[in-house]
């Protein structure tokens, strides 16, 4: 569903991504692990077209999106939940979700979104800025899902969220993958969450992927060494 081949990206003269290659299949979740400053957010911004790729290729469901603008990438099936969530604090929960329905024929929040995140239904008339961090994260994921993506990118979804909500998000991601048959790519530092949600784990260091492992055979101690400061 998503294939990245030899991807390079830079901020001006500062090279950040150095030949990134990986794929995420239909109904598969992939975790990109790494400490802060290793290039995870830059990778996601490049996948979304917020930062142009210097070279390499990005394909979604067989379509090359490397040169596309961000809105074109969304139309072709890629959705992004940014670090920090970026919800609209003065809009209600329902209005926030509806911003993802801009091109939909029916501007109505699908029932399955509220079944995934029941708390959002309970709070649908409440302003987004009045939600807790965990509830805002669920809202940001819901907003991305209504675009009916083929690929869902989640940048540091557990950042600043209490453990009980992290468990709820992990459960929801498992259900989303089964229901929607999409590829999910998660950027993460919390290994326990990555092990809960991901089929394969990659470790990123210095803008390169330096380790890959299926969840079943992962060397936890080795990965922890990469993640430790």
Keywords:
Rossmann fold; single chain; 4-stranded antiparallel β-sheet; 9 helices; 6-stranded mixed β-sheet; 229 residues; alpha/beta; 28% strand
Order of helices and strands: EEEHEEHEHHHHEHEHEEH
Specify the CATH architecture.
3-Layer(aba) Sandwich
Q: Main sheet: which strands, in order across?
A: 6-7-8-3-9-10
Amino- and carboxy-terminal Cα gap: 33 Å
Radius of gyration equals: 17 Å
CATH hierarchy, class? Alpha Beta
Fraction of residues in β-strands: 25-35%
Count of the separate structural domains: 1
Residue windows where pLDDT falls under 50 for at least 5 positions: none
* Count of extended strands: 10
Say what the CATH topology is: Rossmann fold
What global shape is seen?
globular
- Arithmetic mean pLDDT: 91
Structural notes for this entry:
- The chain has a six-stranded mixed beta sheet, with helices on both faces.
- The two termini are 33 Å apart.
- It has a single domain, classed as 3-Layer(aba) Sandwich (Rossmann fold), CATH 3.40.50.300.
- Helix content is 34%, strand content 28%.
- The protein is globular, with a radius of gyration of 17 Å.
- It is an alpha/beta fold and 229 residues long.
- The chain has nine helices and ten strands.
- A hairpin with a 2-residue loop joins strand 4 and strand 5.
- The mean pLDDT is 91.
What topology does this entry show?
Blueprint: E1 2-11, E2 14-24, E3 29-33, H1 40-48, E4 53-60, E5 63-64, H2 70-75, E6 78-81, H3 93-98, H4 111-116, H5 118-122, H6 133-145, E7 151-155, H7 163-180, E8 183-188, H8 191-197, E9 200-205, E10 208-214, H9 220-227
Parallel strand pairs: 3-8, 3-9, 6-7, 7-8
Antiparallel strand pairs: 1-2, 1-4, 4-5, 9-10
